[in-house]
């Protein structure tokens, strides 16, 4: 269950990171409310997950999910470059997340 909560927390981290772009510097009300709500729920779920998971592992996995998801959505939503180096770095992050999951 803790891993599932951590996965949801990571997905919400992607949501608030992407949401920051849509807040237009926190000047748009609805995107700002959704972004802040995602931040709060993401942190709350992370807090629940670390009750049973090792803190370092949970935090690294949480940020890794957020990083990978945000980069991938940035490529699709905002036409950010999908260079070989960027995709290779994403693969390294995913490998690190998988390694931490296996070691926990």
TrEMBL record:
GO terms for cellular component: plasma membrane. It comes from the Bacteria. GO terms for biological process: xenobiotic detoxification by transmembrane export across the plasma membrane. The chain crosses the membrane at residues 33-50, 57-78, 84-103. Coiled coil: none annotated. GO terms for molecular function: transmembrane transporter activity. It is a multi-pass membrane protein. Its main location: membrane. NCBIfam families: PRK11431.1 (NF008512). Belongs to the drug/metabolite transporter (DMT) superfamily. Small multidrug resistance (SMR) (TC 2.A.7.1) family. Gdx/SugE subfamily. This is Guanidinium exporter. The gene is sugE.
């Amino acid at each position: 269950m803790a891993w599932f909560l951590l996965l949801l927390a990571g997905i919400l981290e992607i949501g608030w990171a992407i949401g920051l772009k849509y807040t237009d510097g926190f000047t748009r009300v609805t995107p700002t409310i959704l972004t802040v709500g995602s931040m709060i729920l993401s942190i709350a779920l992370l807090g629940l997950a670390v009750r049973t998971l090792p803190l370092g592992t949970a935090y690294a996995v949480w940020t890794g999910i957020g990083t990978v998801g945000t980069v991938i959505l940035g490529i699709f939503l905002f036409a950010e470059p999908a260079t070989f180096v960027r995709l290779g770095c994403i693969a390294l992050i995913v490998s690190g997340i998988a390694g931490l999951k296996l070691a926990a």
